[in-house]
């Protein structure tokens, strides 16, 4: 029972910040450029035009030694200037992160050492903040130009022995007033954390799936990946949908519309993403937003 409880706590904390960075790390850990991101857009154009998601995006995930990875590339129907102005601000990233079920609080803190985002993460259902785990991200300097935005959040330490967290976001303008975006996540973990996560996936997460076709022997055309890759893919999609909802409804007065848009978009992928009812989600998030000043 104790191992299952530990696995539950670990996995539910990980749901917020599952990894990626397979593509940016290949460039030596540096953020890219407008030219590089536009080249990636050209290469992915066939997948953006023809995919099972019903919208222009592509999702990639892998599992390696000590790290999981997942990247999302998508076309959003917002001009680059709007995307760049909004998503270069730490407070907007708190708005994005707060849409996720597992994010209970997010506070931007500025000091002489720099700006941080202090998160409280926990279960998908409502719970007191005293029962949550804390994760503090450092806001890195933004890379911005007329055709590129790049931002990065990092955390040396995470819950229950995880480390080296990163969130990265890139954007570049494309034709017809749209913007091509890339979002990536990463963290490192050791044997104990891996064992706990596998314990969760063998119990509470055993029936959950992602979006990619399964490559297991005997898998049929409708069989999808499960396990840790499934977790990565579900949360990559949740964060893409959070960015899209925030761009559609960015103002404080639009919070009810933003919350509703995020939940409704997740329900288009109910097999993977449905967790709680719409009414429960809206009530939980509205209360959490009221408590944002009390981290």
Description:
This protein is α+β, with helices and mostly antiparallel strands and 295 residues long. The chain is 38% helix and 26% strand. It has 10 helices and 9 strands. Strands 1, 2, 3, 4, 5, 6, 7, 8 and 9 form a 9-stranded antiparallel beta sheet that branches. A hairpin with a 2-residue loop joins strand 1 (57-64) and strand 2 (67-76). It is globular and about 50 Å long.
Provide a brief overview of the structure.
The chain is α+β, with helices and mostly antiparallel strands and 295 residues long. The chain has helices spanning 2-14, 22-25, 34-49, 80-87, 90-98, 191-202, 227-248, 255-266, 270-273, 278-290, and strands spanning 57-64, 67-76, 103-111, 114-121, 133-139, 143-145, 148-157, 163-174, 178-188. The relative contact order is 0.19.
Task: Write the SSE topology.
Blueprint: H1 2-14, H2 22-25, H3 34-49, E1 57-64, E2 67-76, H4 80-87, H5 90-98, E3 103-111, E4 114-121, E5 133-139, E6 143-145, E7 148-157, E8 163-174, E9 178-188, H6 191-202, H7 227-248, H8 255-266, H9 270-273, H10 278-290
Antiparallel strand pairs: 1-2, 2-9, 3-4, 4-5, 5-7, 6-7, 7-8, 8-9
Helix pairs in contact: 1-6, 5-7, 7-8, 8-10
